[in-house]
Amino acid sequence: MELMEAALPAWFEITSFVVLLLILAADLVLAYKRPHIPSTRESALWVSFYVVLALIFAGLMLWQGSVDHAAEFIAGWVTEYSLSIDNLFVFVIIMARFSVPRKYQQEILMVGIIIALVLRGVFILLGAQLIENFSWIFYIFGAFLLYTAVRQVFETHDDMEETESGVIRFLRKRIPITNEFDGAKLRTVIDGKKVFTPILVVFMAIGTTDLVFALDSIPAIFGITQDPFIVFTANVFALMGLRQLYFLLGDLIDKLEYLHYGIAFILAFIGVKLFFHALHENEVPFINGGQKVEWAPEISTWTSLAVILSAMAVAVAASLIKIRVDARKQVKS
After folding, report:
1. What are the beta bridge partners of residue 177?
2. How far is the C-alpha of 56 from the C-alpha of 238, rounded, in Å?
3. Three-class SS state of 193
4. What is the pLDDT of residues 19-35, one digit of tens each?
5. Which SS3 state, helix, strand or coil, does residue 202 take?
6. What is the pTM of this model?
7. How do the domains of the chain map onto residue ranges?
8. Which of 3, 5, 224, 251 counts the highest number of beta carbons within 10 A?
């Protein structure tokens, strides 16, 4: 991983955190003040707004820092965005399984995104400390990403949701939960008793999912940059607009059949990159006598960015082609 040419000013980092916090707060207020089903046009405009905002932010990083800062942010953002889109698959399953009224899905998704941000923030701080103190952690991160890539290929999203149902069963046995929704309320009153609505179960299911994806995504972005500021802002921008993207993609998200293969390839690629970087930083006694392995290639940020974008483009294009081919077959039959 390349050394930065210049450090980002402290005022820029502080201002960025404040502005991003205000944007997230405004998004949360909008979701709760106007519970509705967004139109395709509304969702597309919001998604476009957040994408443009991320690109403007990359431009500001180029202005205040260096080309490396901007490139690492874009590569990290695209990686986290692709993993966040994968997260949406499970959100779709959860919403369908608990028959959440579409009108209230915006609010639930927003809470899910806040939970994801908090979890990722915790893992980013932990990851940064581990990297600073233990260079061998890159070997573990690399192995974990390779394992995750294999799991991504062979495990369906339904399988993942099934593993989470154990937490839900535990909740239902110990907490009074009704089967009926009462708007978007977390608690309601039935026969004079306060009970939880299925919203609590949905929050727990989404929170469990967020935990799983945070474990996957944080090692992935640390394979691109070790700057905690870039890691966190890339995660924030990846999660911003995720709620609108959920409604924009709608039923299409379930039909992007090859997307998980593209994501698996990205995770495997970054896992290999982390192994190479670990060899360069090597201090493990039983590997090359604890000395750096000079022959291990160092994959640049620009190469990473090209590979990540290409993998996503090929996976989405292949999925869309399959959708079209399947549609033609149905028409002929």
Report:
1. 196
2. 14
3. strand
4. 998 888 887 777 777 76
5. helix
6. 0.78
7. 10-332
8. 224
